[in-house]
Design a protein that fits this description.
Mean pLDDT: 92
Largest sheet: 7 strands, antiparallel
Low-confidence stretches: none
Structural class: alpha+beta
Number of strands: 7
Helix content: 25-40%
Order of helices and strands: HEEEEHEEHHEH
Distance between the termini: 39 Å
């Protein structure tokens, strides 16, 4: 499949910047094909690691049912969303990924993904406690892996102009 390019390419952000946004962001929205072929979009915590997105969830529910029907999914993260009323605009920056989602069945990969999530969301905790918590939740926690096939990032016109101006000064 060939994915669409963004319409306003002068507002695109680089793949490296997209990955940096995914590394620092703490929440995003996963979109899958839900019941009755309606889109189902759900906010989730996540971790991005080497071209993969990992999410944890209950072992049953709408999300998992949808992924079993169709692995195609999209995930969106908003990095910045600053309303600027006097300019009638928003200074925004976001990333959208597209790929194939599936339930992780390998216990080692599931453990490693849970540990990555623990490291991201509980960085001040001890490695031993994060390990204990990651191992302890495996019995009742499912892990979804989204293999990223395509990623785009875009920022508002004013941010893009500001970036070009700063780049020309260097």
């Amino acid at each position: 499949m060939e994915f669409r390019k963004t319409r306003r390419t002068n507002q695109d952000i680089s793949q490296k910047e997209c990955e940096e946004i995914l590394q620092r962001s703490t929440a995003g929205v996963l979109a899958v094909l839900g019941d009755g072929e309606y889109p189902y979009a759900v906010p989730l915590s996540f971790v991005y690691y080497k071209g993969l997105l990992y999410f944890h969830c209950a072992k049953e529910g709408h999300k998992l049912d949808a992924i079993q029907r169709s692995r195609k999914a999209s995930f969106c993260v908003i990095d910045q969303d600053k309303l600027v009323p006097e300019e009638y605009t928003t200074y925004y920056r976001s990333v959208i990924t597209f790929g194939q989602a599936e339930l992780v069945s390998d216990p080692r990969e599931q453990h490693d993904a849970l540990l990555l999530l623990a490291e991201k969301y509980c960085p001040a905790d001890t490695p031993a406690h994060r390990e204990e918590k990651s191992t302890g939740t495996q019995g009742y926690t499912a892990v979804i892996r989204l293999t990223v096939e395509h990623m785009t990032g875009k920022e508002g016109k004013a941010l893009a102009q500001q970036r070009r101006a700063e780049g020309s000064k260097q």
